[in-house]
User: Which sequence fits this backbone?
């Protein structure tokens, strides 16, 4: 009976260590990078070319489309599109020399970049694909 108690204690200790080691994970974020607030000037509407595909079949191809970047929470953003294209939410950004790129972690998506006031989107999620670039 004493051996079972000792084994139970070892298992509980191992489970506790495993729990601690699996705390907040920010996969896809470079070491030392932190999610940042975007400058207010970047949370705006952008005009450009939009393509949205489902199962590799074009649903929308528009050369005069709009994508709007808005803040939805603490360092969390979404992009909404014209032409009834579904939005992309849960975006979090890291900064590198004045450019901002979305990065994985906490439900974020990769594939959104802001550079010199230009917005670029290139995301595949399951059978859906979004592409947007400013004119």
Assistant:
């Amino acid at each position: 009976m004493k051996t079972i108690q000792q084994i139970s204690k070892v298992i509980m200790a191992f489970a506790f260590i495993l729990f601690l080691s699996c705390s907040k994970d920010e996969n896809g974020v470079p070491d030392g990078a932190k999610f940042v607030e975007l400058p207010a000037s970047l949370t705006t509407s952008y005009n450009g070319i939009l393509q949205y595909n489902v199962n590799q079949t074009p649903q929308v191809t528009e050369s005069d489309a709009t994508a709007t970047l808005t803040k939805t929470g603490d360092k969390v953003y979404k992009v909404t599109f014209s032409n009834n294209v579904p939005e992309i939410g849960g975006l979090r950004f890291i900064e590198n020399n004045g450019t901002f790129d979305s990065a994985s972690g906490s439900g974020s998506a990769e594939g959104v970049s802001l550079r010199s006031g230009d917005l670029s989107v290139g995301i595949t999620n399951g059978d859906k694909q979004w592409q947007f670039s400013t004119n």
